[in-house]
């Protein structure tokens, strides 16, 4: 199983000392429920007040060029902060703020070669693994939509592709087929029904790529990992205040972002719920999501993008399901897992969501069109 790699208290203190932070380090502990990076909250005594920071070890097995990734993040966070300031907002709560390393770089490489970065901790706000109300979804979608808008005028060179072919669903499908054929862990026979489901749905995988090739759907700069727990919701106002987890901000399609919002936000149960009777796409939450997203992004989306909002939810849910199943077949090497079969549970859960979205797709399309015309 791949889990949170342990880091000793003295390691935390030494790592924190590599960043330009005032005061006395009071130690730290693992934080959050992300599947990729190792995240810690670290406390500092600063002139008598406890101040928290986020310290993160970048998963360089997955993000092979940490320096390029951090260059993207530096550019995007600066741009977001400038925009927030221009609107008179508290930029340090509306955008992630990198704390530089003492050598002036945006990250620190430790003696073992691990790459670390540090952010100001955004206080009085939190992330949720499960959407509790349609208002939650509306706020998150608005925040991600505003984030896409913000990136429409990011100046300078094209951002680095931190993971090539990240949302190339055809490529994801081919990887899955290769893993099923190789069956290195002898797991394929027991998951035949799941493999069959994936193969029956192959027809979906080229739809967005074909729209892009035809010019109906443009490349944009997108977030690409718009899971609900990647947006911070303000405790007092309930507003989606800050988009986080910027490792995959790079060229992409707006529909990848909306699709992943549908996958993660409309689900009635957690991504690894094993009682599949509890896993459905919640229509009122979808309506909240489409409302928030179209309020923020409706005026720059093309007609083809708007027409494929519901479909993108089905596609991205299918794609992530394929990735979980692939990881299970390959021996759980990519996503962090907490129990044997965890990736298989996730894959089955995502496929249950695909079925639920499929059954409601026409109603979702009608709701999206109605919401757009009412704005
Ligand atoms: P992963 O790529 O592993 O998902 P994230 O960057 O999403 O890592 O961070 C994991 C969790 O840590 C988030 O879901 C959020 O709860 C918390 N977190 C990350 N950055 C901050 C921050 N700047 N302030 C407060 N909490 C944060
Ligand atoms: C990972 O980093 P996190 O936990 O927000 C993954 C996403 C998946 C998601 C599934 C870089 O997101 O692509 O959709 O898990 N991120 C990466 O929960 O692979
Ligand atoms: Mg995350």
Q: Could you characterize what this model shows?
A:
Helix 4 packs antiparallel against helix 8, helix 4 (134-151) runs parallel beside helix 9 (283-297) and helix 9 (283-297) crosses helix 12. It is globular and about 60 Å long. The mean pLDDT is 96. The chain has 375 residues and is α+β, with helices and mostly antiparallel strands. The strands form three sheets. A five-stranded antiparallel beta sheet has the order 1-2-3-5-4, covered by helices on one side. Strands 6-8-9 form a three-stranded antiparallel beta sheet. A two-stranded antiparallel sheet has the order 7-10. It has helices at residues 9-17, 66-86, 91-94, 134-151, 169-182, 192-200, 207-214, 254-265, 283-297, 303-307, 309-329, 342-374, and strands at 24-30, 38-46, 49-58, 108-109, 115-120, 125-126, 220-222, 231-234, 240-243, 250-252. It folds into two domains: 8-64 and 98-123; 134-374, Aminoglycoside phosphotransferase (APH), C-terminal lobe (Aminoglycoside 3'-phosphotransferase, Chain: A, domain 2, Alpha-Beta Complex). Adenosine-5'-diphosphate (ADP) binds at residues 31-32, 34-37, 39, 54, 96, 119, 121-122, 127, 229-230, 244-245.
Question: Short summary of the structure?
Answer:
With about 375 residues, this protein is of the alpha+beta class.
């Amino acid at each position: 199983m791949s889990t949170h790699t342990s880091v000793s208290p003295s390691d935390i203190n030494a790592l924190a000392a590599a960043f330009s932070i005032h005061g006395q380090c009071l130690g730290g502990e693992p934080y959050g429920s992300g599947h990729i990076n190792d995240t810690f909250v670290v406390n500092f005594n600063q002139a008598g007040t406890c101040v928290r920071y986020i310290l993160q070890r970048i998963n360089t097995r997955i993000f092979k060029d940490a320096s390029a990734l951090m260059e993207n993040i530096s550019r995007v966070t600066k741009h977001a902060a400038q925009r927030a300031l221009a609107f008179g907002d508290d930029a340090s709560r509306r955008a992630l703020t990198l704390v530089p390393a003492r050598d002036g770089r945006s990250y620190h490489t430790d003696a073992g070669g691990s790459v670390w970065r540090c952010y100001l901790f955004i206080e009085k706000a939190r992330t949720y693994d499960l959407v509790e109300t349609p208002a939650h979804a509306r706020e998150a979608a608005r925040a991600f939509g505003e984030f896409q808008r913000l990136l429409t005028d990011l100046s300078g060179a094209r951002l680095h592709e931190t993971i090539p072919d990240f949302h190339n669903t055809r490529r994801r499908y081919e990887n899955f087929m290769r893993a099923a054929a190789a069956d290195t862990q002898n797991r394929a026979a027991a998951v035949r029904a799941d493999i069959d489901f994936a193969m029956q749905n192959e027809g979906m995988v080229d739809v967005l790529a074909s729209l892009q090739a035809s010019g109906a759907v443009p490349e944009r700069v997108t977030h690409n990992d718009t899971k609900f727990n990647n947006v911070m919701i303000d405790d007092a106002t309930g507003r989606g205040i800050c988009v986080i987890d910027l490792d995959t901000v790079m060229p992409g399609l707006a529909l990848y972002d909306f699709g992943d919002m549908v996958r993660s936000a409309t689900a009635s149960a957690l991504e690894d719920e094993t009682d599949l009777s509890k896993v459905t796409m919640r229509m009122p939450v979808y309506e909240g999501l489409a409302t928030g997203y179209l309020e923020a992004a409706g005026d720059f989306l093309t007609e083809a993008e708007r027409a494929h909002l519901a479909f993108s939810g089905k596609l991205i849910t299918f794609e992530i399901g394929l990735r979980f199943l692939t990881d299970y077949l390959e021996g759980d090497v990519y996503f962090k897992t907490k129990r044997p079969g965890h990736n298989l549970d996730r894959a089955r859960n995502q496929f249950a969501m695909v079925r639920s979205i499929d059954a409601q797709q026409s109603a979702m399309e009608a709701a999206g069109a109605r919401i757009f015309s009412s704005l």
